[in-house]
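Issue: copy button drops trailing tokens. Both records pasted manually instead:
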Amino acid sequence: MPPHIPRRPAHPVRLLGIALVPAAAATAVVLRSRRTAAPNTSHPTPPPTGQGGLQRTSRFQRNRSVAQMTTRLGAEAAVHKARRAVTPKARREELDAEFQTRTAQHIADELGEMKGALMKLGQMASYLDDGLPEPVRLALGQLQQDAPPMDAALARWAIERELGYDLDSLFSYFSPEPIAAASIGQVHRATTHDGREVVVKVQYPGIDEAIAADLDNTDLLGRIMAMIFPGLDPAPLAEELKLRITEELDYELEANNQRHFAAFYRGHPFIHIPEVYDDLSTSRVLTSEFAEGERFSELETWSQDEQNLAAETVFRFVFRSLYRLRAFNADPHPGNYLFRPGGHVTFLDFGLVRRFDEDETELFGTLIQTVLSDQISEFRSALEVGELLRPDAPFTDEEIHDWFLHFYEIVRHDGPTTLNAEYASETLRRTFDHKSNEILKYANVPPSFALIQRINLGLYALLAHLEATANWRRIAGELWPWVDGEPSTPKGQQEAEWLASKPQD
């Protein structure tokens, strides 16, 4: 049997393999020349916000909504406490469960309606498993897949306003019901007049104002964080949220990122990036190629062999992109993947991509090489050079090495290794819980590493959720430039053949 990552004492916070944000887009196709369509220059008045639009965009409105929610929950808690006092002991556990379910659903519903930064906080909370009551975790988990969508008339108006043409002249078919609704926008399936299937992601009108109001209001963020992230330091979570959400607002940036990855992986045997179509895209509308595939929940019902193949593909995509393309799609979570048998995966949502220079990727390599070869003092020096550790940290080199070694566990063993939930839980704790270890107080996250932690929080969480097994060390060796190892799996052989046929830039 392959070894599991060493188990540690269970922590009240256990990481799910479902990451920070929900899925957004899939895909589209080229529109026939716009010269054949009549432009819409009237810019009609949008439907009333009561028809499913974004109704609360100002700081005052969103503060009031949260205040009303906390007041209502406080009143319900008081009523529950009173009822519990007069309820027989045998019935109290059932009464508590009913109260938790109602409370969790209220929070999820409210954050889903408000969308933006506050909904993202709810999605972040889906990382927590044992640390949250099961009804709370399940209710917040709803935010992973879909938010309450905006009204079809408002979505139509928003697309027509952005693209400058009537919807009927742009598409022969456009589904009024979205196939996905997230924190910033929603996705509709459509067909162009030449018969090709597409998806259109449209941003919620006013969401930029709502997000600006949230991110500027530290009191509001603090109150919500205290509600759903007990025991964790909210400061790094707030910074993570700000970094994540502001870049997601720019669909032109996302389109550029997606084109960058699509060009690199074009023709790949098991990695697919949907093509972007510029004629149907703006800073608030993104149209791309439609892709078939199953959601993560369906993958979980497949055999362990199929889950292992899918996990290997995701692992290869993340690290080949990082070390060979020098780009990292910093949203590695299940909602952004579509799965097909045989380990074929379509990767979606390129709203947050970090590109690296050669010096930065060389630093990543130095850290890996020194920590895995037990060059303890050299590893500490590399941490300090990379500004990951303050030079005055009052710990021995061995203490520093042993503490950071956790983040490299997956590639330490040259043999089949299975990740588990305890490892994912410990990863979350070491990233955000400053009370867990004094070393973390001297650690730092410089800009080049701010998104790389998504590998620990997203990728490894997903692999742990699947309990994926592989020789991750050998696979990583194929992808690390300083090793450039021979193919170690059938997928590795497929990828080697693709690379041999790929034009060299």
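Record 2 (pasted manually too):
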Amino acid sequence: MSTSSRPLSPHIQIYKPQLTSVLSILHRGTGIFLCLGAIVFAWWVTALALGPEAYAEMRGALGSWLGRLFLFAWTFSFFYHLCNGIRHLFWDAGVGFEIRAAYASGKAVVVASIAMTLVAFGLAYAV
């Protein structure tokens, strides 16, 4: 039995990032970020229950540029995870596995997520 210096399976550095793999990683990342956002949401509800002072402090934190950036990223994560989840439901039904369909649906997910995030923030700031 000879030993080879070659790896048994290709390492991640060998692969060129593809849209499908990047979107898969982004789906996992947005899921984790949504969990973080759920903690912030619980903090917001707690502040709401604690009274006007706590709520004003929370509103100030979320109203800062960093808070607004967080809310924007959280909103994008929500819409991306939603749209990509719907894409996965189609895959579960056996639809959209062809390369062209997978890339088209991936691009549609990104465009729809960005559009819905911008619409949500546009409506929020219009009020």
